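Backbone description:
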Amino acid sequence: MEEKPAAGVRYSRMNVGRHLLYFGINPAAFAFAMTTLGAGMINNIFSFYYVKLFINNYKVSEGAFQQSQVVYMVWNAVNDPLFGYLQDNSKMPCCSQRRLSILYGAPLYSLTFLLAWFPWRAYAPGDLLSGLHLMVALCAFDGMLTFVLLAQCALFAEISSHHQSRLRLIKYNQVASLVGSSSILFCGVLSRNMEDFAAFQAFTVLIAVLSCGCMIYTGFHSESRYDNKDAACSVGGTPDQSAVSFSTLRTLMWQILTQRDFQLFVVMNFFQVFMLAFFNNFTMIFTEHLIPPDVLPSLAKSIMYGAGFICPQLLVLTCQNLLHGLGYYKIILFTFYLEAGMAVIMLALGPQHYYILAFFLTVNMILIQATFSLFGLPLADIIDTDLQKYKRSSPLSSMVFGTNALFTKPGQSLAPMLALNILNQFGYEQLKDAGKDANLSDLESLHSVMFYLVCLVPLVIAAMQALAWTPFSIRNSHTVDIKYVDG
């Protein structure tokens, strides 16, 4: 009796696959990319709007904001390796099978996205409940994001070990991300950059439903090469290791952490996550303060914000030939040099060149996100190397992605914490709503600090990333058609 549903699902996949092939669409890549589409719709909105919402609308105090970020930082870092270990070692199909993790996690993931946008009551300035609301919203959303996207990251490494197949996944991923990123543009236009809060809330509900549907499609139609592996076989090849234990977790993590290429990647990726959070959380705030409304009206700013999330995918799609020819190593290194160079030029020009500043902010968002979109390739190569080195029966895909996140995810909290702390030292908390009543001297001082943050943060971080990335040794995977035989 249990075989019938499985057979029905297989028949459905084959039927859908035939229709997609008829239109020249790869079914495996399409199914994989649907989670990117769904996650992109909600992740971009969450990361772009939650800081401004809680600081400006809910009036959360700096103390409560920082406390929430600390709790979030700890939870954000710890849940990734734990979920990664669970997904790589659990005997429960909902955890061990990548597509089922996405299928069952998608509804909860979309629901937790909605937590932030509906206040628990009318908040007074400094209300303790608004701080608790922020903490719960951050931790719940990140927990489900981790569970679903770790499974998808593992799929990236496990659908195929062919470099060309992975580039095809990247290509489909970028198209899906391009469509998903448009949620920022539509959200900004329909809600007038959150000024019409009721419209904003309605839009988030619609996006949550669409996002859930996209990820459920992946849950039904995607498949890993290792989904049907023998449950008795562990990642190390012996039955004893399949038991979930602290000693096994420690051994596997040590094997991952002692890889030099993994160490170099983690250092570089930490700074990338920091930069991504810095620009996602504060671009809107910097733009509103540094660029007058008569220079860039609200619609133009909405288009600018939308471009910052849409154009990275276009950039990656147009660079497919470069990825084939040069490989990801040289392209990533070049972007670090480019970011540092642009920051030096902007610093030399000064803050009065408003259009150049708007261009600089937008291009930075594009480059940082586009580069980050390529990071699955080096991680997949690290997973392949680990699989071959330790002769595992199946790869530690979720654990490698999860262990990477253990060290890089804190950047998501540190960026808003440090930036807000610096801004508040120059009166941002008092001046953000002062408008025309603000003291001009204090406002000029705040704007000066904002401008230096906009220039110096990418300059310093890009330099450190270049230093960390230069010794990375897996540089030529794009020249090898088949590194390992798909099993």
About this structure: The chain has one domain: 25-225+260-479. The longest helix spans residues 128-159. Residues 1-5, 230-243, 482-487 have pLDDT under 50 and may be disordered.
